[in-house]
Amino acid sequence: MKATWKKCIVVLAAMALLAAACGGSDDDSGDTAAAGSGDAGCDSVDDVALQLQWFAQAQFAGYYAAVDQGLYDDRCLNVNIVEGGVDIVPQQQLASGAADFAISWVPKALVSREEGIDIVNVAQIFQRSGTLQVSFADSGINGPADLAGKKVGSWGFGNEFELLAGSRAAGVEPGVDYEIVQQNFDMLALINGEIDAAQAMNYNEYAQVLETINPDTGELFTAEDLTVINWNDVGTAMLQDAIWADGTRLGDAAYQDITTRFIAASVEGWAWCRDNSADCVDVVLANGPTLGESHQTWQLNEISGLIWPSPDGAGLMDQGLWDQTVEVATAESVLAGPPDASSFTTEYAEAALKLLADAGVDATGSGFSLADVTLNEGGE
Amino acid sequence: MTAPVETARPGFARAAPAVLRQAVTVLGSLVTIVVLWEGYKFIGDRTDDTWPLTNIGLPVSSDDLTMPHASDIWSAFWAPVQRGGSDSLAVFLVKASWFTLREAALGFAMGTCIGLVLAAIMLRSHFAERGVLPWVNISQTVPLIALAPIVVTWGRTNGWGDTLSVALISTYLTFFPVAVNGLKGLQSPQAADIELMRSYAAGWRDTLFKVRLPAARPYLFPAFKLAGTLSVVGAIVGEISAGVRGGLGRAILDFAGRYSTGPAKVYAAVIGAGLLGLFVFGLISAAERFFVRGPQGSGT
After folding, report:
1. Domains A46-128+238-379 and A131-234 equal at CATH topology level
2. Domain of B247: which CATH number?
3. For residue B211, what is the DSSP state?
4. What residues 90-119 of chain B have any CB closer than 8 A to a CB of chain A?
5. Residue A246 contacts B, CB cutoff 8 Å
6. Which tens digits make up the pLDDT trace of A251-264?
7. Measured between alpha carbons, how far is residue B27 from residues B20, B24, B30, B34, B37 in Å?
8. How many CB pairs below 8 Å do chains A and B form together?
9. Of the partner residues A54, A208, A289, the one whose CB lies closest to the CB of residue B261
10. Is A132 exposed, middle or buried (0-12, 13-18, 19+ CB in 10 A)?
11. Mean pLDDT of chain A
12. Interface membership of A259 toward B (CB under 8 Å)
């Protein structure tokens, strides 16, 4: 009996050791950064952790490409891209010091700022909003005014303000003239007819509909089957993916320098993806082993459309869109008041664009136009 | 404590049919589930999603998006997980399961140790039992999804890997049944046995290891089985919460986010998670047979 218990304890201890060993050796398996190399003639290499809002996908292609192509290495940075999770709020990760930079939508980050988190928008990567309200063509929803009397899906959690403001501007009161339905992060409710209009990102959920077989025809749904409300056209679009930095650390010269170099290499990554879209999709697919090729090709194309062209240079804040974002956010009581002037700065983006101009990188993408992407069933 | 009698030892001739019986039961229940699933779909398809001969709606829509055919789920396992990729979804899920299993094993090991130590402390002192037991109970009413982000943030600011954070979340679920059942088991020997040990002038530790712990086995192994499956649940929830790549949690979330374009994959991933839980359960059951009902397992 004693021997049995000794065995039991030995087995348990062995399990613990094994688990610890396996776990330990794999602690960095989630990291995608290449090992830092100082081959660009760096005196020292700075470690940078970038917190994403979600998992690896073409929405973040530029950063993955900058790692893959050694663009961060060239700027003496060793970047570790940290993927988001269900409970990961990028702004919090930035404020807690777990990340050096974070990608976040502007309204959400401004709410965090209002709550006392000192974060600063240092580069506005997306110049347009990717949020749509998608309906089937036969429901006759062609503009915000047509939402009256309909069941309208929204993800909530801060994703609904463009819709609320857009419909109010058209004289249709949310919750009164139409019903808002909590929508999952898939398009099932629209396809099943439970809702008349669904929230969708042009680079993700909209494409998911087009990757689904229409039960009536046995073929994939087509763009002709759908109508779309684009908040950029309505005039209630809000700024989305931007690079946020830690406000307190921005007083530190070393961090300022890292910020400039990080923006420069990131924008260069996005420019590389714009000019080498097929290779860039491969980089994304390598970082997301379950992602579908045609879906990511579509996504990169649409994301590029949100960034390019950037007439003043990618990463620079468009004051007009910033004002519009703040206006919608305060009108919808997302923000108690307009954010202070230190909420964003173009200082580092300007310095970064100068670095890129010296290196001969096209950071405006004036010749960019959207490509025609064919989606396959299931996004494969 | 006589030597075990011949008949108590399961002979191979008797064991083989038992394995066969087990296999037939598993296969039979699988067939039943598939038949019920497809039957429901068949009826729903014919009656436009109402109970036959009524106009009362079925609880779940039976279309192929909501309930993909069993054959579609089966073939999803064998289709490549990424176009042009070499891994099938099954291989991908096995790899993901291995990743999650290691986190769960670490969480299980830590949870078991913590649970046993807590049980011993509560056994030693009634004061500790009164003071600790309520907190052990309260700990389980804190929703895991509230705790997970806290643990992950701690882990990231203190620089320990996400793997350890996930294992800690798993630990949080696993220590509870071990502590509660362990205490009950350690208290289970009859007073006469304890008094006998006392008459031998045996110390507390000797009594613990020679009488109480062996007597606790029938209580501990059910707790281990529960803890084992919970450790898998904890690891999956932790992965989803922290966004750890490589495991089943990530796979489930990934496929769920693209539900409408590939519902069969979501089901396949969920089935994979179920199989992993079953595997852990089986492993601990085997250990139980070895330690409790084995050659020496006839108790005190």
Report:
1. yes
2. 1.10.3720.10
3. I
4. 92, 99, 102-103, 105-106, 108-110, 112-113
5. no
6. 999 999 999 999 99
7. 10, 5, 5, 11, 15
8. 171
9. A208
10. buried
11. 89
12. no
pLDDT at B119: 94
- What pLDDT does residue B81 have? 84
- Hey, are the CB atoms on B110 and A16 less than 8 Å from each other? yes
Q: Judge whether A198 and A187 are in contact, CB under 8 Å.
A: yes
A36, pLDDT greater than 70: no
Average pLDDT over residues A138-164: 92
> pLDDT grade, residue A8 (50/70/90)?
low
pLDDT at B162: 85
Choose the closest CB to A19 out of B99, B102, B240: B102
Domain boundaries, chain A: 46-128+238-379, 131-234
Cα–Cα distance between A104 and A108 in angstroms, integer?
Answer: 7
* Pair B39, B163 in one domain: no
- Rounded to an integer, the average pLDDT of B2-21 is 59
* Residue B164 falls inside a structural domain: yes
Give percent helix, percent strand, percent coil of chain B, each to the nearest 5. 75, 0, 25
Which residues of B are less than 8 Å from A291 in CB distance? 82
Task: Show the tokens assigned to B259.
Answer: 């539900």
Torsion over CA of A102, A105, A106 and A108, rounded to 10 degrees? Answer: -90
| Short-list A277, A326, A276, CA closest to A300 | A277
| pLDDT above 70: residue A38 | no
Residue B201: predicted pLDDT: 87
Q: Are residues B51 and B189 in the same domain?
A: no
Give the model confidence (pLDDT) of B250-284 as tens digits.
899 888 888 888 889 999 999 999 999 999 999 99
Percent of chain A at pLDDT above 90? 76
Range of the domain at B28: 11-67
ipTM of this predicted complex? 0.74
Among B260, B284, B293, the residue to mutate for chain A (most A Cβ within 10 A): B260
pLDDT at B85 exceeding the cut of 70: yes
At the top level of CATH, which class does the domain A131-234 belong to? alpha beta
Task: Name the residue in chain B with its Cα closest to that of A92.
Answer: B153
Scanning the structure block, which residue is given the tokens 């763009």?
Answer: A223
Identify whether the C-beta of residue A58 lies closer than 8 Å to the C-beta of residue A293. Answer: no
Q: Quickly state the pLDDT bin for B1 (edges 50, 70, 90).
A: very low
Q: Is B22 in the same domain as B170?
A: no
Residue B4 included in any domain: no
Mean pLDDT value across chain B = 86
Tell whether the model's pLDDT for residue A216 goes beyond 90. Answer: no
Write the class of the CATH domain A46-128+238-379.
Answer: alpha beta
Altogether, the residues listed in chain B come to a count of 300
Tell me if chain A has a CB within 8 Å of the CB of B211.
no
Window 1-60 of B: residues touching A by CB (8 A cutoff) are none
Whether residue B141 lies inside any domain: the answer is yes
Flag whether B173 is in a domain. Answer: yes
Nearest to B257 among A5, A96, A186 (CB): A186
What is the DSSP secondary-structure string of B117-150? HHHHHHHH-HHHHHHHHHHHHHHTTS-HHHHHHH
State mean pLDDT over A11-16: 56
